[in-house]
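Kindly draft a sequence, keeping tokens residue-aligned:
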Amino acid sequence: MRKIGLVAASVVAAVGGLTACSDSGDSTDTEKAPAATAEESAEAAGSSGVEAEAGEGGAGRDVEITASGVRDHDTWGENAYVVEYRITNSGEEAANYFVGLEFLDADGDVLGSTGVTADKLGPGKSKKGETAPLDVEIENGELADIRDVRVAMVDRTPAT
């Protein structure tokens, strides 16, 4: 299962790297903002949270969606569905993260997905960023159909 997850993560990361853009900044930001952890996002969507907890040491707890919604954006244009996120390494050693995000319609059905990464994130460090889905990533509807986003999976691997 882990091998399949890594292959899928690699493919999504490659596509995401070619098509998505994210802002980043390593910091030790500890401010608490209204956010959903991967566990909360999975529970709210009616999932067991198993995928979000996948990876080393329950890595799903290391990811928060801090804001999401439609807004005008310098990179993604007018009326883009923008997701702000924070990945925090709660482990004791540097780690690489791949986070899979799913975009949902009003009925909670998955319209498409994208991924974000944090490479060589040190213990206690955070990466904040923004991302938005592209037309090609939304396979089961339109960008305008997006009403919510959830953390679908988190893969945490040791940084080398």
Notes: Confidence is low (pLDDT under 50) at residues 1-57. Residues 2-158 form one domain.
